[in-house]
Amino acid sequence: MPELLKNIYNEQFFEGFLQNVLKVQPNFESESFLNKIYDNDWSNKELKERMRHISTTLKDFLPKEYDEAINTIIALVDYLKKTQPGLSFEHMFLPDFIEQYGLDDYETSVRALEKVTQFTSCEFAVRPFIKKYPKAMMKQMLTWSEHEHYAVRRFSTEGCRPRLPWAMALPELKNNPAPIIPILENLKNDTSEFVRRSVANNLNDIAKENPEVVINLAKKWQGVSKNTDWVIKHGCRTLLKQGNPEMMKLFGFGSIKNINIEDFQILTPKVKIGESLEFNFRLLNNNSKDVKIRLEYSVYYQKANGTLSKKVYKISEKEYPKHSATMISRKQSFRIITTRKFHKGQHQLSIIINGKEFEKHSFELS
Known about the structure:
It is a single chain. With 366 residues, the protein is an alpha+beta fold. The chain has 16 helices and 9 strands. Strand 7 (345-353) and strand 8 form a beta hairpin. It is globular.
């Protein structure tokens, strides 16, 4: 069984962390800090609870004045950047400290976020600031989109994603993403793939509530560069899965006239949880020319209330030769995972070609 992620906060981590803290705050009370960290409930705390516990405990051992505590954290980050190059996931309790205790000190906190995000991501910590200071904070995010450090540029788009997973909601940006667009414009062709991927994810978030905004940007950006073409393709993935006609046309997926499905078979009409659904079919291109096809399938999962929930999976995206017959075989796992709860009963499966969904076929999950 793989090690639980929360166990990154172990004896070895704290030993190294405290050695580093002592470099910038020699009077830090390490033993008392550890005694407070390992309280009676420590073993029951999950990852984010441990991060929050570490940041709240830190408050009792850093200087009492917030700006002085932040100076210590910045000094620690500067030291850590020299000894531990690259971004650190483990130290995300440092931006959590800013989120908890700095919301009423905008200037100090903004300075700290810019520094700390160059070592450990501040995308969660910045969201309460966006909510409290929307205009000032989005103006600052735009400024950061032109920062020399790639992590700060990435922070400027990742922190304002309307649907950032596991993060505080930003309903104003969900409803009106206009303040985000200039940031994405600055970063659509960024030199860092890390940054460009964040731009694409932000676009995909926006598309959930404001598809027309993303459609217009995609049309405007297409052909700017290979990097930007990748950004809009990845950013439009939800629209493509929805079979949006404008997106299909933009990416070259046209008419499916003379494209047919033949000999569809569900090979495992009864599937047990933990096993896989198996199916195959033949895809026919009866045209006298090659045709670009986005081929997908939908699984309609049984929900607890008896309704079905659709999820689309990609098979391929390529040119299929003229007058061709291609046999397609696939497996869909029903292995137990943390992100989906399976319910027994009738499920359905369908094939999708260039956004057009074909006949549904039933199978039983037991």
